[in-house]
Amino acid sequence: DANAVPQAPEDPLFGLMAAFRRDTDPNKVDLGIGAYRDDNAKPWVLPVVKKADEKLRNDPNLNHEYLPIAGLADFTSASQKLVLGGDSPAIKEKRVTSLQTISGTGAVHLGALFLAKFYKPNSNRTAYFSDPTWPNHFQIFNNVGIPQKTYPYFSKQTKGLDFDGYIKSLESADEGSIIVIHACAHNPTGVDPTQEQWKKIAEVIRAKKHFPFFDTAYQGFASGDLARDGWAIRYFVEQGFELCIAQSYAKNFGLYGERAGCFHFITSPSTDAQSVVSRVASQLAILQRSEISNPPAYGARIASIVLNDAELFAEWEANLRTMSGRIIEMRKVLRAKLEEAGTPGTWNHITDQIGMFSFTGLTEQQVLKLREDSHVYMTKNGRISMAGLNTHNVDYFAKAVDQAVRA
Ligand code: LMR
């Protein structure tokens, strides 16, 4: 009886997007969803994606047949190289199993489902998420019945990393817990560990036999350098961890609606690694088949054309620098404007944080005031998508923040 179905709350982020669209104020500012915008607040189709698209459409052999269950092989192998580095020991030793997924969300889901079925290190098997994290992480793991806890991550005092809290929490977690980790450009805080801190995190994860689950949705957005943004994952792989990776192409290719992504399971080096890889791949294929049968082709084909062509790849890197560079510029301008106005508080975190988001430190009350008084839309936790700021609205936004903070 459907009468028993309770009303669910609207998704906060997509609800925010809808509220922004309904707002008719000409000065409205959208700092909600993490999607890149150009200096005129318009979606940006990457020039390299336009080129790949044209190439694809002019291909006389193009058809609409099913992809294999694991997806487009040229795409998944290029995705391995992108995330792990071309000379990764795991690739050389054939320890990587990769399946194309419905973007990052699909990859997190496939990984969570696989772990729910096959990863049972202890009776309390729990997944740990950074506090805060991308809210969808909780929903996805909840759907597959894996209990959840959080580890401290963001320090309200410094607006930076609560490193001690993070480490202590890893140390006190039951052995064999699943640790979900943002590989770079942490969402929502824009705060990443340093390389020294990553090393310590890896050390504790090893000592406690935890299972690292990386989510990488912003490679190329944090520093503008793909290798640098992949550093943490590559370090863990070099250290011989068994781990998995959910990889999204939504942001770094601007392929949001095309749902291009990849899931990778890396087996640790051992004498029977090949047998493990074969068994893991066979189970992942069954899970994928039962859920989506086979992944959608279009976005993966676009990314694959770019990833497998040296010239287009270089052009993509330049496009990434255009996006990350504009965001870095907006961070500088916003911070300068708030400091010039003497807006109460400190604002160095705006330029210290990296990637698509800044965790402003604004309270929920201030966020709601900004929406009501100034038609500025951001999530209630005070996160802003930096890409929503541009040379035309940054002054307006800084003034609105100043007003809200002083109110
Ligand atoms: C975001 O956090 O804004 C993005 O990752 C979009 C999403 O799917 O939540």
Summarize the structure.
With 407 residues, the protein is of the alpha/beta class. 46% of the residues lie in helices and 13% in strands.
State the separation between the terminal residues, measured CA to CA: 50 Å
- Strand sequence of the main sheet, in spatial order? 2-8-7-6-5-3-4
Shape: globular
Topology order in helix (H) and strand (E) letters: HEHHHEHEHEHEHEHHEEHHHHEHEEH
Strand composition percent: 5-15%
Secondary structure category: alpha/beta
Largest sheet geometry: 7 strands, mixed
The total beta strand count reads 11
Q: What is the assigned CATH homologous superfamily of the largest domain?
A: Type I PLP-dependent aspartate aminotransferase-like (Major domain)
CATH topology of the largest domain: Aspartate Aminotransferase, domain 2
The average pLDDT is 96
Number of helices: 16
Total number of domains: 2
As a percent range, the share of helical residues equals 40-55%
Q: What ligands can be seen in this structure?
A: (2S)-2-hydroxybutanedioic acid
**Low-confidence parts lasting 5 or more residues at pLDDT below 50?**
none
Indicate the radius of gyration in whole angstroms: 21 Å
* Overall CATH class of the largest domain: Alpha Beta
Architecture (CATH level 2) name of the largest domain: 3-Layer(aba) Sandwich
InterPro entries: Aminotransferase_I/II_large, Asp_trans, NHTrfase_class1_PyrdxlP-BS, PyrdxlP-dep_Trfase, PyrdxlP-dep_Trfase_major, PyrdxlP-dep_Trfase_small
Domain Aminotransferase class I/classII large: 27-400
Family: Belongs to the class-I pyridoxal-phosphate-dependent aminotransferase family.
Organism: Aaosphaeria arxii CBS 175.79
